From TrEMBL:
SUPFAM superfamilies: ALDH-like (SSF53720). PROSITE patterns: ALDEHYDE_DEHYDR_CYS, ALDEHYDE_DEHYDR_GLU. Pfam families: Aldedh. Residues 22-467 form the Aldehyde dehydrogenase domain. It comes from Arthrobacter horti. The keyword Chloroplast does not apply. InterPro entries: Ald_DH/histidinol_DH, Ald_DH_C, Ald_DH_CS_CYS, Ald_DH_CS_GLU, Ald_DH_N, Aldehyde_DH_dom, LUC3-like. This is Aldehyde dehydrogenase family protein.
């Protein structure tokens, strides 16, 4: 049941008067979570106008005042953390516990505070007595952000926090699947920051397209599919917008022959199945050396079989449903293609036909060919293919064989050897003996068609500023 505060948040973000609204359903139960406003391009224009009016004073306030406001926003989220987590669980489907809803809300607080506290001083480039040159970063103006449905609050904060810190205003367009979470997050944050700086426009594709091409938007941040990212690139061309794009991934993990199967099983599982596999930088294809292949399969199966899946508000569960039917159908299709090819299903692969919600069981598939669609396509769900290899060179070639490169990982008892292999992988981030662990101090971004631009840390702040060099004697 909703708490009183959760109901108050839902009432605050619900459409008012005769405004259009759309019911949002819980992907675990099919029950109505709340009603989201359906904004249109006229609403977007109003949001951009308010942002343009508010931004100059915010830019003039300076880093210190802006950082203090981000800390106040973090305080406000902490004060509403349980209500936000429960809303997130019901709308997105992820459980309260484990690396899920409460974790995501806590990450919003952590990223706000880290972004507020990251130093970014002017850089003296040359000072030799005859020439002086200094590099600093000025506000861009108004930033547009388009977010996904898998981590709707956390990824929104990844966009909002650095934009505000650098003196910009921001207009956010959330996924149509999870607008309530982002609307509620902004409702809470706006208690702590000046009016007009942060607006959420909860509309459809037409609103996203208008945001990406709007001449008053100086930069677009987008997390989502590669296909949509390419469309944003095209629509941004006429106004030469700055872009940060975190696009699709199909992250590879390589287990070297000296790894300890029992020691790495838990890390492999959560690398692949965090958020029920619905994570851009999740482990999506696992290459295991033939010497320890069966042992890794056995250890991973034993761990996965004991992880509870179910409705997110049940405190016992740590895996939830897929967020929407379209994603459920993608995972189902890919697992069925693996079965048809003769691959061996170690666990799962058999969703219950009559149960409510989009639950797909944690699925492990062995003895599968590298060209199978479950390996070659991004499944974005709880189904992990495990591919046998003979030489490290073979594994690296297969890991690098796709056009995406968001993340990758190497698993070994020899850290020095793991680093050597990591350096051969074509990915924006390569983890050693873990997968997908991110840190607000450490830059994050993709390689190849997984996007460009960096987020997090000082480098991430720079991508939300306009570089300016001042040079003189």
């Amino acid at each position: 049941m909703d708490t009183t505060q959760t109901r108050t948040l839902l009432e605050a973000i619900a459409p008012s008067g005769n405004a259009a609204g759309r019911e949002i359903l819980d992907p675990a139960t099919g029950e109505v979570v709340g009603t989201a406003p359906v904004h249109d391009v006229a609403d977007l224009e109003s949001a951009i106008s308010a942002a343009r009016a508010a931004q100059p004073a915010w830019a003039a306030a300076g880093h210190g005042e802006r950082s203090a406001a981000l800390h106040r926003a973090a305080d406000a989220i902490e004060a509403n953390a349980e209500e936000l987590a429960r809303l997130l669980s019901r709308e997105q489907g992820k459980p309260l516990n484990g690396p899920n809803a409460r974790f995501e809300v806590g990450a919003c607080v952590a990223w706000l505070r880290a972004t507020a506290d990251t130093p970014l001083e002017p850089e003296v480039l040359v000072d030799d007595g005859t020439t002086y040159a200094e590099l600093s970063y000025r506000p861009i103006g108004v930033v547009g952000a388009i977010g996904p449905w898998n981590w709707p609050m956390m990824i929104s904060i990844w966009q909002i926090a650095p934009a505000l810190r650098m003196g910009n205003a921001i207009v956010v367009k959330p996924s149509e699947y999870t607008p309530l979470s982002v609307l509620a997050l902004a409702e809470v944050m706006n208690q702590a920051i000046p009016e007009g700086l942060l607006t959420v426009v909860s509309g459809g594709r037409d609103v996203g397209e208008a945001l990406a091409s709007h001449p008053a938007i100086g930069k677009v941040m987008f997390t989502g599919s590669t296909a949509t990212g390419k469309a944003i690139i095209r629509s941004s061309a006429d106004t030469v917008k700055r872009l940060t794009l975190e696009l699709g991934g199909n992250d590879a993990g390589i287990v070297l022959p000296d790894a300890d199967p029992a020691a790495i099983a838990e890390g492999l599982f959560w690398g692949a199945f965090i958020n029920t596999g619905q994570t851009c930088a999740a482990l999506k294809r696992l290459y295991v050396h033939e010497d320890i292949y069966d042992a890794v399969c056995d250890a991973l199966t034993a761990y996965a079989a004991a992880v509870p899946m179910g409705v997110g508000l049940d405190e016992n569960n740590v895996l939830g449903p897929l967020q929407n039917k379209a994603q459920f159908d993608i995972v189902s299709r890919l697992v069925e293609s693996a079965k048809a090819s003769g691959a061996r299903v170690l666990l799962g692969g058999n969703p219950e036909a009559d149960q409510p919600g989009y639950f797909y069981p944690a699925t492990l598939v062995a003895d599968i060919d590298d060209t199978n669609p479950l390996v070659a396509e991004e499944q974005f769900g709880p189904a992990l293919p495990i591919i046998r290899y003979s030489t490290v060179e073979e594994a690296v070639a297969k890991a690098n064989g796709l056009e995406v490169g968001l993340g990758a990982s190497v698993w070994s008892s020899d850290t020095a050897r793991a680093r050597e292999v990591a350096a051969l992988l074509q990915a924006g981030t390569v983890w050693i003996n873990e997968h997908g662990a991110i840190d607000p101090r450490v830059p994050f971004g993709g390689a190849k068609q997984s996007g460009y631009g960096l987020e997090f840390g000082a480098e991430g702040l720079k991508h939300l500023g306009q570089p300016q060099v001042i040079k003189g004697v």
